[in-house]
Write a structure and sequence with these properties.
It is a single chain. This protein has one domain. Helix content is 38%, strand content 6%. The chain is built from 2 helices and 4 strands. A hairpin with an 8-residue loop joins strand 1 and strand 2.
């Protein structure tokens, strides 16, 4: 039979284990935050690439004559008038049935602002402009004021 003093852990042993677990938990929290931010950055890059590719496809369709410039309300150098035009699509040239060529299923959500409201630049705007002239959509950027892990601002991506 064991004596009473031989059972269980001593107070010192328990304090050491709690201290070690606290250090490990303290190191895991910042790592989790960086991992979450990195995942959002990957999502932002993916969303920007998806929208920019759709804008390029729209421009190519206009240049190739697949969709008509006449179906575009304003003179916009072949770029879409807004992001909604990428989702709604444009009528195919010479198609009497009214079929449309669509470029996006939906406007992606910005992972940092949790909104579908992207910053827009037209072909006539300055490359680093934060104001959209409203003529067309040449480029998009995030409305987030955050700073990326690499030190750049999300607005500059």
């Amino acid at each position: 039979m064991r004596r009473r003093s031989e059972r269980g852990f001593s107070l010192i042993e328990l304090l050491i284990v709690i201290g070690i677990l606290s250090v490990l938990a303290g190191a895991a929290v910042p790592l989790a935050k960086v991992t979450i931010q990195r995942q959002r950055e990957i999502g932002l890059r993916r969303s920007l690439r998806e929208i920019r590719t759709a804008i390029d496809r729209y421009k190519d369709a206009v240049d190739l004559g697949v969709i008509s410039r006449a179906s575009i309300e304003t003179e916009n150098d072949g770029y879409p008038p807004d992001l909604k035009a990428l989702v709604d699509g444009a009528t195919l040239l010479g198609d009497e049935t009214g079929r449309k060529m669509r470029f996006l299923r939906r406007i992606p959500t910005d992972p940092f602002t949790q909104d579908r409201d992207w910053g827009l630049r037209s072909y006539q705007d300055e490359p680093d402009s934060n104001r959209w002239s409203g003529n067309n959509v040449y480029d998009v950027y995030s409305q987030s004021n955050g700073i990326a892990l690499d030190g750049t601002r999300y607005r500059q991506w």
